[in-house]
Design brief:
Helix content is 80%, strand content 0%. By secondary structure, it is an all-alpha fold.
Length: 397
């Protein structure tokens, strides 16, 4: 495929091959980031750590993702965004090799640090890149397609990882991801067009966005919503093992149900997310928080657990599209700065959710972790209201 240069004056035709390469990268990124969720127990045993400590393998990647997301646009300067994306994918490949071969907990954490840099760098630029790959009217559709990679990872990574981890060991699962990421690296080189930086980025653009009340309001609501989701999701396997009584096979089936429901969420996001995004902003906290309440009350039943996990999984894939669509509409004059702030906020929420959830799990119980998740969802709903306070003045009219 011949590379095409997109500059500030040229409006490109939709480059769907490049969007698909981004979707595969999302799938691998999500699989790499959250694979410890489905392998938490065997990883803890293999590394002689507690489940709460091993859960911090997710939080450490989140910590460095926060830093990378805030620094990437400044550090990359005028570097072509295609090569930044290629570099981030190379970091992911190196991370997987280190994690798979880790002889101890310290090396595992180094591998997760590299993944955190990839997460922060990729997600900070991803929406801005998508906005340059397709015409303005197709941005929501392209975002839904890219986040289809999230649905793919949610559908297959966790259940397959859990199943293969039970058969061959958790290290084999991470080794299995490496050739796919290597293939994705090559696809980026071929499919992504040249994307020269349009202007030099610095922290002033982010500070200008933070001075806008509607954007700051939305960022806080986004953080509460994500913190709620991942204080629960990080410790889902211990809940299913201890409360539902799921063995490896049942666990794999339940995770597959959660993941497959994500395809419905991706379809719904592409179908209904057009125009005013305000009515959708409260849905993630409302639906996912409600599903968590359902698990607390009826999670002892595998059938009920499967139902609530399906609801949670469908909304999980809509979640990202809803908030990134909000960002693309309300920070359209500074998409890279907006992307950096969004990713920093989301990763900080994942970090805090994993840390607080792990502390509650080790000190109290898995139920306490889920109750904390519900409390954060309630706070998000109170802050969001009808969503209009989080729209820029022209969009709120």
């Amino acid at each position: 495929m011949t590379a095409v240069t997109f500059d500030a004056e040229t409006k490109p035709a939709a480059a769907w091959g490049a969007v698909l390469s981004m979707a595969l990268c999302v799938a691998m990124l999500i699989a790499s980031e959250f694979m410890p969720v489905s392998l938490l127990t065997p990883m803890a045993e293999g590394l002689r750590a507690t489940e709460g400590q091993t859960g911090q393998a997710i939080s450490i990647s989140g910590l460095f993702a926060v830093a990378a997301s805030l620094l990437i646009t400044t550090a990359a300067g005028r570097m072509n965004r295609k090569w930044v994306m290629v570099a981030m994918t190379a970091f992911m490949l190196a991370s997987l090799v280190l994690v798979a071969a880790a002889p101890n907990f310290a090396v595992l954490m180094i591998g997760r640090v590299l993944l955190g840099i990839c997460i922060g760098g990729f997600w900070a630029l991803a929406t801005a890149v998508i906005m340059r790959l397709v015409p303005e009217g197709e941005v929501s559709k392209a975002l839904a397609l890219m986040y289809g990679g999230q649905a793919m990872a949610a559908a297959f990574a966790a259940p397959i990882g859990s199943y293969l981890g039970g058969m061959f060991g958790w290290r084999a699962v991470f080794w299995a991801l490496t050739p796919i990421v290597a293939l994705n690296l090559v696809w980026h080189l071929v499919a992504l067009p040249s994307l020269p930086a349009r202007q030099r980025q610095d922290f002033r653009a982010m500070l200008d966005l933070l001075k806008r009340p509607y954007f700051l309001h939305g960022l806080a609501a986004c953080m509460l919503s994500w913190g709620s989701a991942f204080s629960m999701f990080t410790y889902l396997r211990p809940f299913l093992e201890k409360v539902t009584g799921a063995d490896v096979t049942t666990l794999s089936v339940l995770l597959l149900i959660l993941g497959c429901a994500g395809f419905f969420g991706t379809w719904a996001a592409g179908r209904f997310l057009n125009g005013n995004v305000a009515p959708f902003l409260k849905l993630p906290a409302l639906v996912m928080g409600g599903a968590t309440v359902g698990l607390l009350l009826l999670g002892f039943s595998p059938i009920a657990a499967g139902l609530f996990m399906a609801i949670w999984g469908a909304m999980n894939t809509m979640f990202s599209v809803i908030w990134m669509t909000w960002m693309s509409q309300n920070a359209d004059d500074a998409p890279e700065a907006g992307g950096s702030l969004m990713v920093a906020a989301i990763q900080a929420s994942i970090l805090l959710g994993a840390v607080v959830g792990g502390l509650l799990l080790d000190a109290l119980s898995i139920q306490a972790t889920f109750i904390g998740s519900v409390a954060l969802a309630g706070a998000a709903l109170l802050l969001i209201g009808n969503g209009h306070k989080m729209l820029k003045p022209s969009a709120a009219l």
